[in-house]
Design goal:
Structural class: mainly beta
Number of helices: 0
Distance between the termini: 40 Å
Strand content: over 45%
Oligomer: single chain
């Protein structure tokens, strides 16, 4: 069983930056691919980015390419999402998720989510 906890969210102005962190406990995160999802107000949850077990492969949704960067530190059991040039449309609850399969469509483990608000 993997427990995931997100941190680093908050309120930022448009054009600003935030760094989200997903910390795992209960199991080595290096056995899992990890993804970030987000759920904007009134909308369905959507995929943001994912990273493979060693960090050698990443994949992003088009709307965040060039602005967001996903990285991992398996020694610290964490996966980070660096978000730059933030836009109001990035406002959402952000979730990290983990699964043994990279680029899966379903994830077995989820964090509780953290709010990111970008003001215009």
């Amino acid at each position: 069983q993997v427990q995931l906890v997100e941190s680093g969210g908050g309120l930022v102005q448009s054009g600003g930056s935030l760094r989200l962190s997903c910390a795992a406990s209960g199991h080595n995160l290096s056995d899992y691919a990890v993804a970030w999802f987000r759920q904007p107000p009134g909308k369905e949850r959507q995929f943001v980015a994912t990273i493979s077990w060693t960090g050698s492969r990443t994949h992003y949704t088009n709307s965040v390419k060039g602005r967001f960067n996903i990285s991992r530190d398996n020694a610290r059991n964490t996966v980070d999402l660096q978000m730059d040039s933030l836009k109001p449309e990035d406002t959402a609850v952000y979730y990290c998720a983990a699964d043994r399969i990279f680029l899966t469509t379903t994830y077995n483990y989820w964090g509780q989510g953290i709010q990111v608000t970008v003001s215009s």
